Each structure stands twice: as structure tokens, then as C-alpha cells.
Amino acid sequence: MHRKALKESLESCSAAVKLETKKHCLLSRTSFPIPVPTLRKLVRAAGLGCIAEISIGVVPPVPEYTVARLVHRGYAVHGINHEGHGKSSGSKGYLSSFGDVVRDCSDNFKSVCEKQENRLKKRFLYGFSMRGTVVLQLHRKDPLYWDGAVLLAPMCKIRSNPYMYRGNLALQTGRELLSVSLDTEKNLHEVSLPFLVLHGTDDVVADPSGSRLLHERASSRDKTLKLYPGMWHVLMGERPEDVERVFADVISWLEDRVGVSHDDVVLHIDVSHDLEDASSSTVTLTQDLVGIL
Where does the record locate the signal sequence feature (predicted)? Predict the structure, then answer.
């Protein structure tokens, strides 16, 4: 489906809510599955997933398009704009504490997971770039709570890049991002949940060797690494045919773990980011049965 049509259909099945924390007012957004003509059956998602997205400067249409595609596959996504990002309060682009980001995501996602209609659903986390770091920190915070994770170009290891933007990043934000990246790399052996990690071999932002290390060191019994020769950092922003490959791998992995066939799935996606500023948020994926994630 054309991106414009996907965006319009996504806007028609989304709801935004403001959440009050001790420090900030955060925007939460949920997108619900909608009828898809190509699906033989329409079911509700049977699992719940969370996507952590805090990267600064991601091309807005990319996460928006990804969410729309998942919705059209029957998934529901839930997430929040982090402090200082999107329509949440706080100084723009400023993170006072990465721990606060993880805590906000954990509290918000668990409140969704514990709703009566979601208690029997499986729970999956999804993260791109630095959002992958949020996902791994959420797992470390509560190792047995999540059923799996999908990580696209996770920043387990930062690559030196002379062409990377070096503008006015808040010192505290940079300090928090560097600290959590080093901590994540040091503790990869603690990762024990099922996960799929996908990475382009020509990524000049997040070092692909970090994903190799994650796959090698993680104690998970169910772990899959997919490397895409010639692809860069934003896998969902590659050429259409390559995006199809990546998206197919993600869907196949998810469906294998919820035990459903392609034609029997509807994705519920709980989106944490606002579509007008999708660069910094955290998302939860959920599924039911008259649906699935």
C-alpha cells in the first residue's frame, strides 16, 4: 500500500493520551488493527509488545510507515514520547536521566499489559538504534516479564564516524547515551529473552559488530542474527525491495513465536511516538486472538 494511504488509515485508527509522571507530561499513543482485504481472517492480536524509540533525527516517515504496516498486519502498538521529545514536556532533545526513560517506559507498558484484555497476551519489545538500548534495559529491569524482542541496528556499540552530526547535543544527553551504551555492551551476557537482531553491514552509526557480540554473548537459547549486506543504519528506510525483505523477516519471526500463520494474524500496535514527530518514542506491540503479535 502507498505510504500516504497507510498514514491516512493509521490516523483513523489511533488514539493519543497524555500521561502525568512526577517530572513530565508524556504523550502516549495507541494504534489499533483495521480490516485488511488481503487477509483471509481477521483476528485480534494474541500478544503485547513494546517499542522503545529515543533516537534523535530519524526520518519521520520511516517509523510511521513501519507502524502503519504492522497495523495492517493485525498488530497493535503502544508507546510514549520520551521527555523532551515529540509532544511530551521537557527541554527539546534533553534527557536528564536514561534511567527515567526506562522507568517511564516500564511503568507505561506494564500498565497496558496488565489490563484485563491484555493479561493473556504475549509481550514483545521492539527497538531501533538507541531504542534497542531501551529494550535491553527494560529486559534487564525485569528479565522474566517479556516474551521476546526485535532489535533493528541496536546501538550496543558506537561506531566512529567522521561524517556523523556533531552539533549542539546537550552535554547531559550525550553523557547519558554514552554511559548506557557502554553499560549495555559490558552486560550483553545478561540478555536471556528470545530475540531477533537485524543489522546492515554498511551501518556507520551503530557498529554491526555490536549485534554480533550480542548474538554471541547473550545467554538466550532462542536468538537470531540477520545481517544485510550493503544496507545502512535505517533498515526500514532502504530501497523498497530491501524493506520488504527486512519486514518479512520481522513478521516471520514474530509469527513463529506466537504460533500463527500469516493469514490468521492481525497486528495490534501501541505507538509511543506521535506521528508528527516519530523520532523519539517507545512502542509496545500487542496481539489478541481475533488478532495477534
Answer: none
Domain that holds residue 207: 3-286
Q: What is the mean pLDDT of the chain?
A: 69
124: cell is 514483545
DSSP 236: G
Residue 291 lies in a domain: no
Yes or no: say if 286 and 77 are a contact pair by the CB < 8 Å rule.
Answer: yes
Report residue 191's pLDDT band, with 50, 70 and 90 as the boundaries.
very high
Please give the full DSSP string across 4-59, using - where no structure is assigned.
HHHHHHHHTTEEEEEEE-SS-EEEEEEE-----TT-S---B-SEEEEEEE--SS--
Domain count within the chain? 1
The answer to whether residues 85 and 63 touch, using CB atoms and an 8 Å cutoff, is no
Query: What is the chain's alpha carbon radius of gyration, rounded to the nearest angstrom?
Result: 17
pTM above threshold 0.85: no
Q: Which three cell numbers stand for residue 224?
A: 537470531
8-state DSSP, 224: E
Q: For 124-128, 139-143, 210-214, 261-265, which range has the lowest pLDDT when averaged over its residues?
A: 261-265
| Residue 88: per-residue pLDDT | 60
Q: Is residue 115 part of a domain?
A: yes
Q: Which residues make Cβ contacts (< 8 Å) with residue 77, sequence separation at least 6?
A: 30, 31, 49, 51, 67, 70, 71, 267, 268, 269, 270, 271, 272, 283, 284, 285, 286
Give mean pLDDT, residues 151-172: 64
Task: Judge whether 292 lies within some domain.
Answer: no
